[in-house]
Amino acid sequence: MSHIFPPSLIETLQSARRVVVLTGAGISAESGIPTFREAQTGLWAKYDPMTLATPQAFRQNPRLVWEWYAWRRKLVSQARPNPGHYALVEMANHLPHFTLITQNVDNLHQIAGSSYVLELHGNIARSKCFAENVVISSWPETDELPPRCPHCGGLLRPDVVWFGESLPSEPLDGAFAAASTADLFFTIGTSGLVQPAASLPLLARQVGAILIEINPQTTPLTDQMDYHLSGPAGEILPQLVAAAWPPKG
Ligand code: OAD
Hints:
249 residues, alpha/beta, 2 domains
């Protein structure tokens, strides 16, 4: 479907100096990765996240939690970036300052070529020691699941943020710093329900940034937006980039 963009939006994008993008699971939906909250197709339609994505769940049943993430890691490893991911790589090339913040743990922005990604919720491709909280890149393979930390013998866990856990401070500080100096802030493919990510566009608005949301649905953030582009990110983003920076030749 072809989208028509208001000329003011195109001019804003062309003249923007400090663009910040926050993405959620929706930008990976067209890569075949389930989002979280969509009723029928969402990951959580089948599983109760509170019984899987918490430190308590891991302590109670480490093997179940490890295997659930192993299943998600396999799903993600078979996924490829979609045109939405690639359009963000191209957008960054046209702008003086571009910061990409993601709530996703699927590594697809990096695979698409985004060089600097602030991962607020970690990355499912990495594992870390539950006891020492340090990333572990290799360990002796045994039949035991979860595997054990080669340093201390503690259990390994996915390097993703669970409910009730604090976010990694470096990406979080970077995200707040970027939002507080943005002149244009995109919110793409997120339900806007999880803090602190959902407060980033509002912080940008406080410093005068123009807010753009890309989502087939409206969200609790929609009322704050200057523009809500309704549709799939994999369709809208490439057309928006082409409208702002028409391909040469
Ligand atoms: P959700 O599943 O809550 O929301 C996905 C959003 O993407 C919804 O608003 C959909 O309407 C939208 N969407 C679906 N398909 C889309 C498409 N093709 N293009 C654009 N948007 C589309 O996922 P998140 O908002 O990312 O945290 O969830 C935020 C956090 O909640 C996740 O990072 C996860 C969960 O707790 C952790 O795991 C720590």
